[in-house]
Amino acid sequence: MELIDTAFAVFASGLRLAIPLLCACLAGLYSERSGVVDIGLEGKMLAAAFGATAAALSTGSALAGLAVGVATATVLALIHGYAAITQRGNQIVSGMAINMLAAGLTALLGNAWYREGGRTPPLDGGARFSPITLPGAEALSGIPVFGPFYKTVLSGHPLPVYIALAAVPLTWFLFFRTRWGLRLRAVGENPAAVDTAGISVPRLRYSAMLMTGMLCGLGGTYLAVAQAASFLPNMTAGKGFIALAALIFAKWRPVQALGACLLFGVLDAVAIRLQGVALPGIGQVPVQAIQALPYILTVILLAGFVGRAIPPRAVGVPYVKER
């Protein structure tokens, strides 16, 4: 029973660690399915984390922080959309510019406003998202296996976790059960055919960038206002790039994206658990090696277990309307 409780605790920790990856992965899914490469997921999440923290500090409301975080990331997504869709610029360069802008600007503003080396003061009270206990969590806790699973893994997370999890079936429904999703998938494969049918390619791609911005805003807000309870410079720590790896691992599908992000989150949780633990026959593993474990396993999984991952055919190619 103790082993099951430990496994559930690790999985719950992995779920919390996977949420920023899931938000960024779904964000990349919308943009790349529409034909726009977006490696600026990292920068949008970082900017959203800073904007959400600043708003939560000034208003004392976590929901206000969420609104500002989503708005901040959406503005950056639309800027990237303008560069990539309207101006037909290099999408890799535009995404990297957003990453660099967010990293520099958040550190600069954080130091100028709070004088703590780019950090912000800690959030507390209503300025931070608190864990939510689901109905019946305590009453069902006595049921073997299911009770501890429901109480430990499913219950006790802040609001952004449940929003991010709900975004997975919603994304599946939008992509595979709506006319908009059909058109969006088509524009990522053959934008000329979509244009011939009288449907605006730029409008579809801009709508995808709006979804990208909102999801990045949710992920960045969760990092700062729920998980860390403050903003730290470069606190995203490469999560946007790992999310792109998870997107490839999931082969650009929402349900598989959830599985891939959960896998990476659990690997990260296991790595945290292993810090300072002496392994049989090996001894205590250096902290640096443990911290590198999720990234090493990411490379191994992508190199050896993904198989052939075929991206949308028109991804990264600016569409030029034929006269």
Structure characterization notes:
This protein has about 325 residues and is mainly alpha-helical. It has a single domain, classed as ABC transporter involved in vitamin B12 uptake, BtuC (Orthogonal Bundle), CATH 1.10.3470. About 70% of the residues lie in helices and about 0% in strands. The chain is built from 12 helices and 2 strands, in the order αααααααααααββα. It has helices at about 1-35, 40-60, 60-85, 90-115, 145-155, 160-175, 180-190, 190-195, 200-230, 240-250, 255-275, 285-305, and strands at about 280, 285. Strands 1-2 form a two-stranded antiparallel sheet. Strand 1 and strand 2 (about 285) form a beta hairpin.
CATH topology: ABC transporter involved in vitamin B12 uptake, BtuC
Global mean pLDDT: 89
Class of secondary structure makeup = mainly alpha
Query: What CATH first level would be assigned?
Result: Mainly Alpha
The tally of domains stands at 1
Q: Spans of 5+ residues with little confidence (pLDDT < 50)?
A: none
Helix content: 55-70%
The largest sheet, given as strand count, sense and whether it forms a barrel, is: 2 strands, antiparallel
Distance N terminus to C terminus? 69 Å
